[in-house]
Request: fold
Amino acid sequence: LENLNLHRSPINCLTLLTVYERQIDYSPVNRTEMLEKFLFLIFVAYKKRSDYSNYPDMKDSLYVLGMFCENLIREKNDWFSKVDFIVSCSNYCKEKLIDVDCARLFDILEFESIIIARESWYRFRYVHWIYFFLAHRMHHDEIFEEYILSEHRYVNFPEIIEFYSGIDRRRSELIDILIRDLGNV
Reply:
């Protein structure tokens, strides 16, 4: 848990133990990969206990959540309503022709305490979830990638860069940008 910088909670511990159940010698150096496995188990568990035939796909959900988190940081806000989440994500799914039931996605995130409520408002329980989803957004959207990498914005979000570089381990342009920017200091 220290290597992953995940908060110690019973659900996190249990889920990570389940991840390690099949790969006992696995080293959790790549936090992006570990969080992906963590989410995979959450989505599989939901699928098993769900009566629904149309449960959200994890990869499509990452894509949609990346867009949602992009809107949060551009608006400099981390609180949102359930209605805002569902409407924003549903509109994006229609625009991009993605089949994700955003209400069910919200329910999964809430049930697993990835998002938490305070009165009628919600937020991500831990900021690393926002950074994780933003890294996936950078991976899928060149405009957002340019937004983060331009004007030294990445300095404010070092965990996004860590998660982004861990997605496929082929983000050499990050090194070029960091070297260039360090040379200008």
Observations:
- The mean pLDDT is 82.
- Strands lie at 115-118, 121-124.
- The first strand starts at residue 115 and ends at 118.
